[in-house]
Structure formats: structure tokens, C-alpha cells
Amino acid sequence: MLYKKSALLVYFCALVSGGCDSKFSQATDTVASQTSVISADLVRVKQENETLRAEVAALNKKLNDALINPPLLLARVTEAIVAEKMASARQASAVLETHFPDSVEARNARAAIAKYDAELVEKKKLQDIIDARGFYALQPQKAPVINGVTVKTESLVFGARWQFNDHDNEWNYRDAERGERFVLLKAFLSSVDKDPKLPDLGLYLIEGKGMTRIGQFQYEFRRWSNYGTYIGLYHDYKNDFSHTQSIPFNAAAAIKNSDSKLPFAVVATGESCHERVTKIGQPEVGYRPAPSCVAKKILNIEDFTRGNYKILAFFNKPKGS
């Protein structure tokens, strides 16, 4: 019985082995065929990749050649300096020095970077002074230019009465309210524009490292040619920027008596918002602040060193400042 089972097992294994060898052979042929196709595709892809790499390299060379252009490199230097990206500016300048050392662009790039470096040194010196003296490190300007309008100061004093519109031995005036006084400004305002807006001028209390706005100047014409021009019977060309470049004004800002004893400054804010208007009364023309004439309430030193704010004068400046 055991012999028969062994023979049957041997027969079955022989039968199975023959069938497996046939199927294995077919699978091997199929794999070999597919491998050959994949190998051919791989060779083709590698060749295409090499071709693309060569095209990219050629395009990069053309791009680099185009970028190594003196005017373009100088423009990159200028743009980087304006953006205060000096590493980029120096890099572009170095390319100019390497490829075009004797060009006008290389010289201009060197000069622009040298100018920036010199200004940086001066700014550092100013910043050191500002750190030590605060706002008092800033120099008052007697004739600042604000948006094309020059404000040439003749006098800037305290007073109880503001006088203006002089004509034929007559004038208008306003008296300060109880508990207040005026800061009175006499100035010539000049402009090449025929219809300029006058600058906003304010009073700012100095409190440590900050300034607080406490008042705004109003403008009035200083004088009229005669009574006829004052009442509007005739046009006064001397008070019209379309006919004259410079006009005298008397301006004033009210300040509390208590504040007038504290350190404060007269500040040009960089805004130009006092407009020429036709009004009721005499004279019938004048300058009045527009509704949008609103400057910053609180200032810091950066508003002056980096912004458009300018000091016209200090009052009650502490000793040693």
C-alpha cells in the first residue's frame, strides 16, 4: 500500500513539474520582451533629457549675456540703492567692474555707492546727536520749501493782538481770548505755481521723545494796495499768485498761556491744504484750511529725519539742549 502511494506521488510531481516549466518559460520570455522595451524607452528618455539640458544651458548663457549689459547693470545698482539693498547694489557693481571696468556705467555705479556710504556715515553722526539731544538736534529752517511753496520767516513772536489786511492807514485785527495768546508769524510765501495751496503749520508741545499738536496757524493777507482792492472793487494783483510770485502774509495760532511757558515748536507738517476761497465780507478772498487739513497729532523724531516735517522755530528751549 505504501509503495502505491509513493509511486502515485512521484507520478503527480513529474506531471506538475512538466507543466510549471512550460508556464515559467513563457513568463520569462514576456519579461524579457518588456525589459527590452523599457530599456529602449530609457535610452530615448536619457537622450531627450540631455538635449533639454543642453537647450537650458544655452538659454541660461543667453540670459546671462543679456544681463551683463552696462546700462542694465547700472539700473540694477540704482534700484538697489533706492531700496537700500546694498548687497545687491555691490554685486551688480562688481559685475560691471569685472566685465566693463572702464565704462561710464562702472564709474557711475562706484560714485553712487560711495555717495550712499558717505550719506550713511552722516546719518549715523546725526543719529548719535539725536540720541543725545532729541528734537533739539534738528536745526530750525528760516525758509523751508513745502511742496513747492517757500515760507520765508520774517518774525515769529508772542502777541495778544493779530493784525492784518493793512490798507490806507486802516487794518483788521483779532485779540486773543481770555487765558490765551497768539504765536504771530510774519512771512513771505513764494511759489512758481499760479494757484498753490499754502502749507499747514502747527504748534507742537515737546514732551520727551514725542510732540503733541496743540494749535494750527491761520493765514491772512498782510496788506492791500488800497481801500478799493480791499473791498473788492478792484483786483489786487499783488495778492494773487497768478500775477506775483511772492506774497506777504500775517499768520497766527492761538496757544494757552500755560502751554506758552512750556517747550514747544512751530512745525511745517508737509501738508499743503490752505486753499484760496471766496468768502462773505471784506476782503472777499482769503485762504482757509480745507476739511481734509488734518495733520498727525503725535510726532516722533522719525517724522523729521525720514518724513516731510520741518522745524521753523523752538520756543522755551531748555538750557543746554
Characterize the main sheet.
6 strands, antiparallel
Q: Tally of extended strands?
A: 13
Low-confidence stretches: 1-17
**Order of H and E elements:** HHHHEEEEEEEEHEEEEHE
Strand content: 25-35%
What class, by secondary structure content? alpha+beta
Distance between the termini: 126 Å
Number of continuous helical runs? 6
Percent helix: 40-55%
Q: What is the radius of gyration computed over CA atoms, rounded to a whole number of angstroms?
A: 42 Å
Shape: elongated
Mean pLDDT: 87
What would your notes on this structure say?
Helices cover 41% and strands 31% of the residues. With 321 residues, it is an alpha+beta fold. Strands 6, 7, 10, 11, 12 and 13 form a six-stranded antiparallel β-sheet that branches. Strands 1-2-5-9-8 form a five-stranded antiparallel β-sheet, with no helix packed on it. A two-stranded antiparallel sheet has the order 3-4. It is elongated, with a radius of gyration of 42 Å.
Keywords, please?
elongated, 6-stranded antiparallel sheet, 6 helices, 5-stranded antiparallel sheet, 321 residues, alpha+beta
Summarize the structure.
The protein is of the alpha+beta class and 321 residues long. Helices cover 41% and strands 31% of the residues.
Blueprint of the fold:
Blueprint: H1 2-67, H2 70-82, H3 86-99, H4 104-133, E1 145-146, E2 149-159, E3 161-167, E4 170-175, E5 180-191, E6 198-207, E7 210-216, E8 218-221, H5 227-230, E9 246-256, E10 264-278, E11 285-289, E12 298-299, H6 302-305, E13 310-315
Helix pairs in contact: 2-3, 2-4, 3-4
